[in-house]
Structures are given as C-alpha cells and as structure tokens.
C-alpha cells in the first residue's frame, strides 16, 4: 500500500466532481491510499497570484504546512492546484526571505512551513509510482478499439517539471494505451483550452476550443481524455456554444483520465461520476460498461 | 647554505597599488627571516623592473627571489627567465599573487594590505625550501597525426606535408571532404564548395608526404609530446584499395538500395558504394549492414555477389580488377608521431526532438544539410529545389536558431546559421524566382569579411525578413487559403503581431553541435571539454589551438562552431605550431614532477590507476612504481595517495607546502 496526502482542490468537488470521485475510486484497486488533507483550503489559484503574488503564496503555503505535518507527498488530481502549489513551493525553497515572511503570516494560525513537501500531480504518481505495467494488470474490461485523444492542457507539463516533455508530452498517451485503448494523433494535445478566458474573452476562448475539438474529431477520436478540471469543463460545458457560434456539431464526450481508467478497471459508472459530465459518454462507452 | 632572499612588490600601475599599500608590504617583507632586500616598483615585469632583480642577484648575492604581483599564469615564465639570466636556477623563484587573489577582489584597503602581507610571508617561507631543478629535453618525432579529413584536417595535413614532413591523415568515413563536400555554394562569395575543395582533396590523395587512412579510426594514443604512439583501426572495406579503380561498375550491379548518409536521407546509394563522385580515395566500400552477401555469410549462405561475379547470362562482367574481398577483416596499425592535430568537426543538431517544428512529421520540413544536397547539382535532385511530391515550392520559410540560442538545447549561437540561411535565400531566389522566401530570425549576426554586405544584397533581392522565432509549424488549416500549406506560426516582433505564414517548404537552420562520440574522442586524446561540449582550448584568447595536453592541437568545429575561413586559419595555425616544434627537434620536459623513492615504495600499485596522464608504470622485476618523466604533469594525485609516502612532488614537497601554510597563518 502506498500512502499520499491528498489535496482534491475545489474543482474536484464542484465543476469537476467526476474527477474527485473517480480519483478515489481508482486508488483502491491500485493499492493507493489517498488520505485527504485535513482542513485544506484554496490553493491560491493562478488568478489570485496575478493580483497579489505574495498573498497567493501564503494561501498555498497554508496547505503546504499542513501537508508537511503528514510527512507524505502531497498529491493533487487538479492541474491548476498542481501548478499553484508547485510554484509556491519552489519559490519558498529558493527564497529564504520570502519563507520568513510567509511563516510570519502562518504563525497567526499556529503553522510553520520548512520547505520539505514534494508536490505531485496524480498523473505523475500513476505513471511513475504505480507504473503502467501494474495498471494494465488491473484492467478488467480492456478498451480495445476505443479511439481516444489524450489532452494534456498547459499546466500539467508546463513549466518543465522534469516529468514529461513540455512541448511534446507522451505520458498520458502511454497511460491511455495501458487501458487497451487506441491513441489517435492529436498535434494540439498541449495547446491552450482558453482556461478562465472564457469568462473575460469569450470569443477568443471559444475559438481555441473549436480548434481543439476540430483537431480531435478530425483525427478520428471518439472521446477526449484529460486530467485537468478546467480543460474538461471548457471542452465539455462550452461545446454547445462552440457549435452554435461556428455552426459545427461536435458531440464527443470529454472524460477525466481517471474516469476512463475506472471504466477499464470495471468500476461502476456511478462510482466514477460519469453522470456529472455534460456530454453523455454512454454511447461511446457502451461496449465497455 | 645561508638563504639570501629578495622580495619585489609590484604596483602594477594602480591595479595593485590602488588597493594595497605597497610601501607597508615592502617594509613588512624587510622584517621577514632571511630577507636581504625588499623593494617595490611600478611594473616589476618591465625591463627596468627585471633589471632590479638581476642586479640584486649579482650585487647582493641573492639565492632566492619572491615577486609579489599578478598570477603566475601571467608572468612566472618572465621572472624565472630573469633569474636564469642572472645565473640563478629558475626554480629558486616564487610568486605571490596579490592582484587576482587580493587587490582585484577586495575593496577594503587595510584588509587587502594585511592579506598581501600574509601572501608575501607565505611565499618567502616557501621559497626558503625551494630546490634547484633541471629541465630535460627529449627528441621530437617529426611525424604528425591529423584526425579528421574535413576542410580543417585537409588544410592542416597539406601545410605540414608541403614542408616535407610525414602526415598520417585518419578519416572515419570512406572519403575525406567532411561537411564542406556536401555544401552547394559557400557564403558570401558563392564559390562552389566542390570547386574549391576537390583540388585540395586530390592533392591530399596524391601527396607523397601524406598517408591517407580513410575508413579508419584512432583507437588509442599513448606516449607524450614529441613521442606519441597511436593505434589506428582500419575498418574492413571488403574492397582491396590497391586494386579498386573506382570505375563504379559494382555500384551499377548491386541490387540493394539504401538511404545515403552523404545525401542526408534524401538520396539513395547502393550497398557497395562511393559516397560521392569526387570521393578521395576514389575507392568503393561495402556496407556490411546492408550487403546481402555479407549478411548471408553470417548464416553460412553464399548469396548475391553480383558485384564480384557480374551477370553471366546477360554477359555483364563483375569487378574486372578483382578488388572485391569479402574475407577482409578490421586491422589495427600503429604509427609514431610527435604531434597530433584533432579536427573531428561537428554534427548537425537533430531537429526531430523539437516536436513543434514538425521535422520527421511533415515531408517538406527539411534540415539545412538536406537543402544543401538538394541545391547541389550533383545531389539527388540534380540541383532542383523540389517538394516531396515533385512540385516546385511557391513559398519557403527558413527558420533560424533551431537548437541554438535555446536553453532547452544549446545556449550558444552557432555562428554560421545566419550566413548560410542568407545563402539559402539567395539560391532559392535564383532557382525558384517566383517563390516567396521568408527568413525568421531572432537577430541577424553577420560579422565577417563581406558578410554584412551579403545581408544587404539579400535584402535587395526581395527576401522577406521576419524578426521573430517561429513557435510552430503546423498543417492544421484555419482558413481555406491555408489548406495544403504548412503554416509557420510566429510573433513578428517588429510589427508586434502574431502571424501565420503559409509556405510549401520549411528549411530548419540547425545548430552545429559536438559529435555524439565527443566524450570518447576526448578521452583518447586527453582533451578537456567546455560546458557546451566542444573541446577545450588551452586559452580562449591567447592559445586557441593548443590544448592542456602538450603536442595535441584542436582545429575547426570540434573546438566550437565556425565558418570555413576561420577553420582554415586555425588549421594553418596548428600546422605552424606543429612545424615550429618539429624545427627545434626536441622538447623540454617540466621539472616539477613526481618522483618515486624506490626504497620506500611497497609495490602496492595504488598510484598506477590514479594517474590521469597514464604516466605511472609498474616495474615487475623490482616491484616498484615508475613515473615517466615526460608524461607526468606534476598534478600530485599519486603523491597524496601513496600510503607509504614514497612519492614526492618536486617543487611541491611537504616541507614547502607546510612552510607556505605557516607563512600565511603567522
């Protein structure tokens, strides 16, 4: 059994509920214990950091200090939380002055951070700690014939964490293949989905999504798979607006990689939160459920 | 014997005197044990400064000298020579570095002065224990080994051979010529590369003083400056070089087609082949990986042999010279040389690792060297610029800095890419005049004779210069007019706008990088490597072709990216250095080396494998270690490691070092 401090992040409990549910569901057969970090709070998010970086770092550091007490690696399934927590962690380790300031703030809550936590993305843990070979042995319903476009988004591999190639990542491709599915060529696999620009620059964001959907469909994908709740929400929830704006009819489901893994493991759809996705995946997954 | 020490404190203008109180240091030195005289002077290295020392040696009978000035790397030879001129053994001299180690790095004058005093005190204590040492001379072998047959090696070999000294020119490939033989034209003069190179290649092939060993590799180098022993592997060619006439009949008979290395994958060759028409030597070679007969032999089968037998039924004879020899094996030959010139060149950066540029995914994204071959009249397209489907391109983009100036790959600038990219643009304007040509650059770097003028000429020739590094090459069309095109996505930083430029062909101006086996080659020739991976010169400014291994020189792109004129200049420089050593006929050996006290040596052999210069051998008869005086650099590794304390580093004895430390601490 492998133990990790688990940081779901807000998306995994709200807009991306399927992510949180499925992450916990697949952990069991893989002998991973994801121990939810007690009293975790907001990661600080990229938007906060753009307005006041040091405040955002304090917000992140609160969670890092809590995680440090557990002595475990801090694992999050959310790409955005991963980036924010990693960034804060690196800055704090590199800048003793900043660490002192942050600890002054944390002292109000009787917390202190020493910089020893390792922040990790669930995808990396699955690929590196658990390993593709082990994962493939847990597959009960191989997804033979299912054509998948693995979509990395930006925050999983950029900046370069040393986990995967930042411009041409492949870890997710291999992971999806270990479920028995077929990976289709997807040249835009690490291009931007528009992120939160959908709120402020809707036209721009919709065009970015259109490109991604067109590229996946054009290469024969039956579904898109991503670990990121922002990417998933954009491509899933705004597909309708893309279709009405560009007179297209994209209807491929956008699943969390943990959901697809759960299907391959033979876990019931209810336990994977499949119903929380907007584009129904039932038709595409009919042969495997 | 009574020690009579003279101390000379240098002002070095204001370099030292601006920070260190030289008067105080001089007064301090006067009070030190055995110091007979202490003076300070504006420039001790000047003639009057040196004369001060010489006069004192003669008048005051000094038998030890200390100069407190700059780094010994600068002027130790100067002052040693001054001592020698005045009749004092040069090893009775010691230098205190109060410039680089003191005045230049400290701001507080009082503290710096105290430190200078300590450094002078250390030098005085140390020199007290110095012993006179004698340098030795050994004869210098006039043969020269040149490794690599590109333009650098060719030039160096010819210069030396023309002065009637024997050259062994070793080339790994079946022919000499290197990268230059692949080029179409050369910048900025647009000379045809082959026209200026092949006469030199032919001269090499016929020169009475050059023994050309093509298809061969240096395996081992032992010995030392003036007296190297070199083992060279002559790879089996499966063709008797003495008999082959280079007629090419065998190439016509051979049924096996493979991608040609010389054509960089855009042309084919046979399994028995000559890499290109003007190859030197003009001999074929059989590629054992692809020859059906050689592959069959491993399984005990006798197949094909068309090149040897010909086609009897059709009445076509095989090799009439009887040169084909399937039984040939690798051979090792040994030669003795006095100096070595390493000219092993570079390799082109492989852009397939840069996924966004699509090399390897899109047929019409090609490298610079592929374009050179395409543009070359003797290349696979006979000099026509063609797309993969045989059409002529209507638009072409040239992407600069692929793998250069990029922290993910190479931080350095490859120096020649701006210029060769300009050359490509010119050739494109000439060969496909209706096509639009775009150059995407970070900034144009055109320093060199006639280079800036060439850049201006190209601007007039109607090339589109776009300042911006390309972010991506994609075939995903966003508008109908983009269908079927490659889109070069970039930010045009002059107009501050993101652009998508539709083109038919993309040429990647790839970095020049160290060859993949540079580490192995560096080990063979005891070369250092710089952070960028290229071989390290002895001094980047003042000794750019010598290396830390005496008698071994580096020239051309193995030392760093450079153009043909610079390469040729370096090659000539190294040849001149080798010839200068040959003309003295002997070589002086450093006296500050390690010596074994055979009485104390227990024969444990701890020292033998530790020596980085392979200078220690073991005398099996006497059971003691022996140090080769010519090979030893006096690094002291063995001295520190010897468990019996049997090895002494001359000029770095325990007594001397302890005295120096005590001097610092007083």
Characteristics:
heterodimer, A: 289 residues, alpha/beta, Glutathione S-transferase Yfyf (Class Pi), Chain A, domain 2, Rossmann fold, 2 domains, four-stranded parallel sheet, B: 666 residues, FAD/NAD(P)-binding domain, five-stranded parallel sheet, 18 helices, 36 strands
Under the CATH scheme, which architecture of the largest domain in chain A would be assigned?
3-Layer(aba) Sandwich
Beta content of chain A? 5-15%
Largest interface between protein chains, with number of residues from each side: A-B, 7 and 6 residues
Tally of structural domains of chain B: 5
Q: Please state the oligomeric state of the protein chains shown.
A: heterodimer
Q: Gap between N and C termini of chain A, in Å?
A: 28 Å
CATH topology of the largest domain in chain A: Rossmann fold
Strand order of the largest sheet of chain B: 10-7-6-20-31
Descriptive account of the structure:
The complex is a heterodimer of chains A (289) and B (666). Chain A has 289 residues and is an alpha/beta fold. Chain A has 14 helices and 8 strands. In chain A, the strands form 2 sheets. In chain A, strands 2-1-3-4 form a 4-stranded parallel beta sheet. In chain A, strands 6-5-7-8 form a 4-stranded parallel beta sheet, with helices on both faces. Chain B folds into 5 domains: 5-133, 3-Layer(aba) Sandwich (Rossmann fold), CATH 3.40.50; 137-234 and 332-345 and 517-586, FAD/NAD(P)-binding domain (3-Layer(bba) Sandwich), CATH 3.50.50.60; 249-317, no CATH class; 347-513, FAD/NAD(P)-binding domain (3-Layer(bba) Sandwich); 594-650, Alpha-Beta Plaits (2-Layer Sandwich). In chain B, strands 10-7-6-20-31 form a 5-stranded parallel beta sheet, with helices on one face. In chain B, strands 22-29-23-24-25 form a 5-stranded parallel beta sheet. Chain B has a 4-stranded parallel beta sheet with strand order 2-1-3-4, with helices on both faces. Chain B has 18 helices and 36 strands. In chain B, strand 34 (616-619) and strand 35 form a beta hairpin. Chain B is globular. With 666 residues, chain B is α/β, with parallel strands linked by helices.
